[in-house]
Amino acid sequence: MSDFDGNFIEMTSYWAPPSSPSPRTILAMLEQTDDGMNPISEIFPQTNIPRDHDTDQSGQRSGLRERLAARIGFSLPTLDTENMSPLDAFFRSSTVPNSPVVAISPGFSPSALLQSPNMVSDSSQIIPPSPATNYGPPEMVETSGEDNAMPMVFNNDLLYQPYNVDLPPLEVFDDIPTEESFYIPSYEPDVDPIGTPLVASFESELGDVDPIGTPLVASFESELGDDAHIDIISIEDSESENENKDEDDEDYQFDYEDEDQDVYLDEEEEEDEDNVALDDDAQPSAPKRRRFDQASNNIGATRTSKTQRIILQMETDEDNPNDGYRWRKYGQKVVKGNPNPRSYYKCTNNECKVKKHVERGADNNKLVVTTYDGIHNHPSPPARRNNTGGRNRSAGTTMPQNQMDRTSRLARDHPPPSRTPVEMRPFSSMAPQVDLTQVYMSGISKLPNIPVYQLNPGFMYRNDEPMMNVMPDGSDVYGGIMNRLFVKFGVDI
DNA sequence: CGCGTTTGACCCGCGC
DNA sequence: GCGCGGGTCAAACGCG
pLDDT, tens digit, for every residue of A115-165? Predict the structure, then answer.
């Protein structure tokens, strides 16, 4: 089965490092009228991505937009990136190519970056990282229009790692490759001035109903407040068990190999074992997982979709970092290879099937590995400040009422870190938080040096009132984009 | 009392 | 077939 039939294509390695365009350049490309989804090759003319299986179309690959238009008979409207302020400012400010440090407005959350995988549905949009963004000293770029701009550090000392994006064979777009693997940079452990390099990996699967979905993660401000910085290793879509199981297994295997090989580059040697555990946990869990929602059903046993899985590793003192959504813990288990228990959470939204599990690294207790499974079909819930009940733990996200007590069990393995109540964090209770959804939607996911980023909590919270700068209509922009992208396709978003 | 956590039992898939 | 291990359930529990 060719990739155009929904099979995966592999593009994991061996690309010729192109020069890196600045975000501005990319944005400019994206803003091109009538061509909001330019093939990456136009942006990265030097891009030379090997295609193992799609030789048939490799020469004629056009942008997603074009192909979609060709397939469905109408043209995809261009995204109005002009209205994406401060995103706009964010990009426009990035006038220095390869700048590892980009000043952005407060309120921007890195979380939206996690939402990008679904958008990268065209292999032609794959943008390999630029070598120019590596091994060089960080540069700071000031935003010209934001008084309260905060630096968002895009790591510049990076190792290339495979960045797998395994996209599902959308029925309507069955001629679109479903898996893409490209490289994103990751931290060089020794050069991180802040702390131990973190690794975050994304695994994504698409839900059948919601090809894109709402932001899986609203924000990670809370983590950022705790010496958190995040690395994104990979984004990949993994088809859940059932149909094409054999093929899935193959895909998994392939991807695992990639990650095993590269993810560990970020980790300390002595943590390899731990990483293996994490990786095992992160990926094969899907196939091993119990039949999906057997009790609840719609998707049920005949689920043909993919579930988006995003795996983040970050350093934070929070056991369950605020990501903007509310979660209910439904289980906890000690998994093999990690003395720290893994906690299982479900999104508290009745109609949302998103789950996540959180665990601390076996060797690094500050390392929190959060695996999101699924895509939220709703926006992040509003803050519940001063709400009835007034339970602190309910403010915006899960904050175990007895977090401190609960973690006492963990304390026997490691001293309890100082934890700041979520509610006391500048962003935590300010949901829905504006995130980088717009960035993602407008193509930032294609930026070579964006997926791996580092946030300096000090900068993040420099402002006492960061939310004042949050883009007030972020959700509208997001919704608008969603509509413009999918409404015409008849996709229920 | 409401809401969320805790925790042991159970389910399920996988590998041997 | 069996054991292992990850994931889930659901009653009990606890906090405000």
Answer: 333 333 333 333 333 333 333 333 333 333 333 333 222 233 332 333 333
Q: Is the distance between the Cβ of A390 and the closest atom of strand C smaller than 7 Å? A: yes
CA distances from A207 to A23, A250, A309, A493 (A): 30, 20, 10, 11
Distance CA A203, CA A283 (A): 8
A 10 A CB-CB count for A331 gives 12
> pLDDT digit string (tens) for A264-323?
333 333 333 334 333 333 333 333 333 333 333 322 222 233 456 777 777 777 776 677
Compute the distance between CA of residue A120 and CA of residue A9 in angstroms, rounded to an integer.
13
Q: Is the CB of A348 under 7 A from strand B?
A: yes
Proximity of residue A356 CB to strand B below 7 A? no
Beta strand segments in A44-192, E: 101-104, 140-141, 150-153, 158-166, 179-187
Give tens-digit pLDDT for A210-231: 333 444 444 444 334 434 445 4
Helix, strand or coil, per DSSP, at residue A393: helix
List pLDDT tens digits, range A454-477: 222 222 222 322 222 223 333 333
| CA quadruple A179, A254, A214, A361: dihedral, nearest 10 | -160
Is any atom of nucleic acid chain C found less than 7 Å from the CB of residue A285? yes
Residues A275 and A265: their CA atoms lie apart, in Å, by 10
Angstrom distance, A360 CA to C3 C1' = 27
* Nearest nt by C1' to A242 Cα: B13
Note the CA–C1' distance, A290 to B11, in angstroms.
8
A251 CA from B9 C1′ (Å): 34
Extended strands (E) in A27-157: 101-104, 140-141, 150-153
Across A288-446, where does the E strand assignment appear? 306-315, 327-334, 341-347, 355-360, 367-373
> Could you write out the DSSP letters of every residue in A29-54?
HHHSTT-TT--HHHH-TT-----SS-
Name the residue closest to the C1' of B1 by its CA. A389
